[in-house]
Write a structure and sequence with these properties.
The protein is α+β, with helices and mostly antiparallel strands. The protein has a single domain, classed as 4-Layer Sandwich (Double-stranded beta-helix), CATH 3.60.130. Helix content is about 25%, strand content about 25%. The protein has seven helices and 16 strands. A hairpin with a 6-residue loop joins strand 10 and strand 11.
Amino acid sequence: MLKNMHYGPRPSVRAAQERLGGLEFGKLRVRPLAPSIGAEIEGIDLTAPIDDETFTELERAFVEYKVVFFRNQPITIEQQLEFAQRFGDLEDHPFLPSKDGFGEVIRFEKDESTPGFENNWHSDVTWRAVPPLGTVLHAIEVPPVGGDTLFADMEAAYEGLPEPIKAKLDGVQAVHDFTQSFGAAMPPEKLAAQQEKFPAVTHPAVRTHPVSGRRGLFVNSIFTSHLEGMPREESDELIEYLCAQAAVPEYQCRFQWRADSVAFWDNRSAQHYASNDYWPAHRVMERATIIGDVPA
């Protein structure tokens, strides 16, 4: 049986911290929130056009820190979309409600009668053949306390694995399927139709980031159904073990929202968890998701 037991320092976190400590930025002020993941960005106004030099620095901070945060950004929907589109085309989500008039924006409005169910570690939409590059999330209304979002560094998580586990994962393909999440409540006829449109896909269990070249875990408990070429019991045990790496506090940062805060995370190298400790309070967030590349 695989055991998630580790005591003492995690060298992969130290290595990431040392790498990040060597970064320099001329146009941005970057304040790290944790040793290996997450930084608040100052010196940028998302309500105004971003010059090319600043944008290049922001791209670098985004890839290196895996999630970046901006405070006091009263952006409109149009400005949010314009910012996200600088990084690529945007996706329409087939199962989540969009904001009226804006098909590329998902509106999450939670209260006593509509609780959130995002409180599980995951990467977004990995059941697509081309999963997202990243997500831009804007806080419209936040509860007086609670409702933080946690992020996990899946590159440090991979580097922290025992060498025999790394060897076991080499070349392994993971199957991702919406059926066990969004499909769970669908009637059979609708489920069959959606499965035809969105069949299960395979991605490497360990993907290589297309920009940094670093390797990171790319399995999650919501969308990964099994690992190809393994007996089901062995696959289930290994997936459980790998997914548990996101819950290691040393690999995490935590963001406390305020109204008009913006988070922008790299879906290729980070997982996230929306803490559902604020129910029944009101919480409204709006999300734009950028189409990525085929994992390799």
